[in-house]
Specification:
The protein has 69 residues and is mainly alpha-helical.
Length: 69
């Protein structure tokens, strides 16, 4: 398993972004804007993954660790 590098406020912000992007994706898809809706859904899944696993590949690549916040 990968080392955790997301924590504290960073984790909360990512979870909130996942919720906001999920709502945006649903509304956008209902309005028939498929590409924008799928893009928002992809972002929601990504942020949700980061928040639940406490791991972000981009953070790892950049050497960022917010678990001590």
């Amino acid at each position: 398993m990968a080392k955790q590098n997301v924590g504290g406020r960073d984790r909360i912000v990512r979870a909130l972004l996942a919720v906001v992007l999920t709502v945006t994706a649903i509304r956008t898809l209902r309005n028939g804007k498929r590409k924008a809706g799928l893009l928002a859904l992809l972002g929601a899944v990504g942020f949700g993954f980061n928040a639940t696993t406490c791991f972000c590949g981009l953070n790892e690549a950049l050497g960022i660790d917010t678990t001590d916040e």
